[in-house]
Design a protein that fits this description.
It is a single chain. This protein has 194 residues and is an all-alpha fold. 72% of the residues lie in helices and 0% in strands. The chain has one domain: Tetracycline Repressor, domain 2 (Orthogonal Bundle).
């Protein structure tokens, strides 16, 4: 992600966030190719010069937005792990439900996530954070054995979940309920929880 300057002051951070929010809203409404920096700046109610103070181009805005989404995915996990349900199958159900809500509600995410390019290092770092959090909950709270195979299984489970969420939302803006239900069953069985 190439950002010209990281906003430090509150007013600058506000403008930076407005640019990201405007880009997300526009991605929800129209194809990427039709969106320009002037349109984003206009929607964000900032000057084009202000936009260019933070971002070198439209792609840099989308890259920053992708990082924002990666951060939010970790926050969603943390919110669900704050108070754990009584059994691990209920945790998997809760996580899928939470990510389903995220896919429905996060502006631009559903329409852009399937094609947005994320730096491999950033995507891997995000996956590691999700895996580590889920691993800790399963082993320390639910007593799932901390076997060497658990880490790779969680990594594969995260990848499968992302793929099936993409599939669930490909044609249905609310997520195909059958795919989402199968995802819950698949993950619980694959992880040996059911």
């Amino acid at each position: 992600m190439e950002t010209r300057t990281e906003p430090r002051q509150r007013r600058s951070r506000d403008k930076y966030e407005r640019v990201l929010a405007a880009a997300a809203a526009l991605l929800e409404e129209m194809p990427y190719e039709m969106i320009g920096t002037r349109l984003i700046a206009n929607r964000a109610d900032v000057s084009v010069g202000t936009l260019y103070r933070f971002f070198v181009d439209k792609q840099a805005i989308v890259d920053a937005l992708a990082q924002h989404w990666l951060d939010r995915l970790v926050e969603v996990m943390d919110e669900q792990l704050a108070e754990l349900p009584p059994d691990p199958v209920a945790l998997i159900d809760r996580l899928i439900d939470a990510y389903t809500l995220f896919w429905r509600a996060e502006p631009g995410f559903r329409k852009a996530w399937s094609w947005v390019s994320v730096e491999p290092g950033a995507a891997h770092s995000n996956d590691v954070q999700l895996i580590d959090r889920l691993h800790a909950a399963l082993t320390s709270h639910y007593g799932i054995p901390d076997e060497p195979a658990l880490g790779p299984r969680l990594e594969l489970a995260i990848g499968v979940a992302e793929h099936l969420l993409n599939l669930a939302f490909k044609q249905d803006p609310h997520g195909d309920p059958e795919v989402l239900a199968e995802l819950k069953i698949l993950l619980a069985r694959y992880l040996g929880l059911a």
